[in-house]
Design goal:
The protein contains four helices and ten strands, in the order H-H-H-E-E-E-E-E-E-E-E-E-E-H. Residues about 40-65 have low confidence and may be disordered. The strands form two sheets. The protein has a five-stranded mixed beta sheet, with no helix packed on it. The protein has a five-stranded antiparallel beta sheet with strand order 3-10-5-8-7, with no helix packed on it. The protein has helices at about 1-15, 20-40, 55-60, 195-220, and strands at about 65-75, 80-85, 90-95, 100-105, 115-120, 125-130, 135-140, 145-150, 165-170, 180-185. It is of the alpha+beta class. Helix 1 packs antiparallel against helix 2, helix 1 (about 1-15) packs parallel to helix 4 (about 195-220) and helix 2 runs antiparallel to helix 4.
Amino acid sequence: MTWKSMRLCSSIVSNVSSTHRKAGRILVLTLAVAIMPAIARAGSVNFLPTQVTRSAVVANAASTNIPLNVSKSAGCGSGSCTAVTSLTFTFTLSAAPRAAHHFTNMTGVTWTRLTFTETGVAASAITCSSGIFSCSVLPNGANGARIVLTAFGTLIGVPAGQTFELGFGCKSGGCGAWPTLNFTANANANLVPEPNTAMLALTGFGLIGGAFILWRRKLAFSA
């Protein structure tokens, strides 16, 4: 999008005088500076298969590593599976070094996106991995997290009728333990961009519109 916008502005600039051309170049550079951060932030959600998203804080402080693994399950383990019949559901995690919750998608549709939100563990302390989703951890306030799971490529998500497991903690030890938390889950919900990302994008579009209006006025004046 940025390259096309720059080419449009460059073609406009080529049809005006040298003085106007200098002003156009400044507009093009301003446009690039305004839009590039928005694109970078919008692309912060990781869509690379099976890659674990880790914040800089977690990478530098392994003691705060609190893992979550989302995987396909052939059964319900030693407990029972919770049948999920709605695209929005809640569940409670009890404090434990290692806990596994099993759910079965009974909504009749494939889940290509699944989001978990909580307000008890900061995003910087959580690492997420999955064999059926791409996984990213985003802040949800100062002390919470929004865990975004997205189907991509060979990562097919959760088909209708499929059972999956949420593994909290680690089997081998050496990682942080999850406290008692309430989770809200939303399947197939659209991801809303962060306010800063939306504002930067609007600024970029405003600059494009301003450059076009300026060109039209100068063209009418020269005629």
